[in-house]
Amino acid sequence: MPDRFVLDSFSLMALFQAESGGTKVREILDRAREGQAELFMTVVNLGEVLYTVENRKGVEAAQNVLAFIDRSPIQVFDVDRSLSLSAARLKAAAGIGYLDCFVIALAQRLDAAVVTGDPDFRQFEHLVPVEWLPTAQPQ
Question: What does the pLDDT average to over 65-73?
């Protein structure tokens, strides 16, 4: 069975901004193209990536990012009631960003690891595996 990963906005921004963590994200994307991994994200986290890119680089850059994601092996999950309620429980328990809670909730649902460099995810390592990007290795 291929490895399963849920991407957060941090991991995709590392890729699109050519940060050091982006190399590892590209490697995981390549593995997914070869059928050795499965990649997922929620539609709300997709929106987070797109508004961030549009704010920083404009509409055309955001459209290019969306086209890249649409052509990629990343499967974008719609948010249903169950996922929303799971994210809400995580938010109430941990107090981190609500959009980050969707990443954890989807990883739990799919039995997948989260790919991130965001240190807020350290508190969830007991719930889901975290594949840390080189720029934010836990200490």
Answer: 98
Indicate which CATH number applies to the domain containing 66: 3.40.50.1010
With cut-offs at 50, 70 and 90, classify the pLDDT of residue 138.
Answer: very low
Q: What's the longest Cα–Cα distance across the chain?
A: 39
Domains in the chain: how many in total? 1
Q: Which residues of 115-133 are buried (b: 16+ CB within 10 A; e: fewer)?
A: bbbbebbeebeebbebbbb
Alpha-carbon span 134 to 35, nearest angstrom: 24
Q: How many helices (H) and strands (E) does the chain have?
A: 6, 5
Residue 22 structural domain: 3-136
